[in-house]
Amino acid sequence: MILDSQAYPKNETYHLTYQLNASMNHSEKVAIRRDVAISYIVVADSWNTDEYPDKDHTWLPDTVCLTGVTADGTVYGHNYIRYNWAFKYNEGLWSSLVYMGHYGGTLEKGPADPDYGSNETGADPDYPEPYDSVCRGT
Questions:
Q1: Cβ distance 131 to 17 under 8 Å?
Q2: N-to-C CA span, the chain
Q3: How far is CA 105 from CA 17, 55, 108, in A?
Q4: Helix, strand and coil in the chain, % to nearest 5
Q5: How far apart are CA 94 and CA 113, in angstroms?
Q6: At residue 69, what are phi and psi to the nearest 5 degrees?
Q7: Is the dihedral of CA 56, 96, 13, 62 positive or negative?
Q8: Nearest 5°: phi and psi at 46?
Q9: What CA–CA distance (Å, rounded) separates 124 from 103?
Q10: Which of 82, 134, 126, 124 is nearest to 103 (CA)?
Q11: How many Cα atoms within 13 Å fall on the side-chain side of residue 33?
Q12: How far is 13 from 117, CA to CA, in rounded Å?
């Protein structure tokens, strides 16, 4: 269930907050994040075709910021996805493994996640930036 969505033109982000069902297991929660990533590939590809001649990639936010929360509003986790990642995948420059790896690398677990506090920071310069520095909503 979508609880809130907001565009922030200044930093070209779109924020989406969704509620997780209390009966969902870990795999179902991961599937939601995966489905968002796959949907974003499709949307990015659609805007870059002749199907929508009056639109192009500039109609899409550069970054989509996602926050999953529990029924009581406790954060389960944050993720973000970037347009340029979807573009690289759609152009055949990245495999699905690289695309999903970048997206998965943005996961920051919240207090509602049983593994909260076990986040790792990558030393690789291509490792995604922390959620807060990308999705500050200004």
A1: no
A2: 25
A3: 19, 30, 8
A4: 35, 20, 40
A5: 30
A6: -130, 160
A7: negative
A8: -65, -45
A9: 15
A10: 82
A11: 25
A12: 26
For residue 2, the SS3 value is strand
Could you list the pLDDT tens digit for every one of the 138 residues in the chain? 889 999 888 888 999 999 999 888 889 988 998 998 999 999 888 887 777 777 666 778 899 999 999 999 999 999 999 999 999 999 999 999 999 999 999 999 999 988 887 655 555 556 678 888 888 755
The token pair at 80 is 């973000």
- State both tokens at 113: 């996640």
Residue 91 tokens read as 């152009």
Nearest to 78 by CA among 105, 49, 45: 105
Whether the model pTM is above 0.85? no
Give the number of other Cβ atoms within 10 Å of residue 27's Cβ.
8
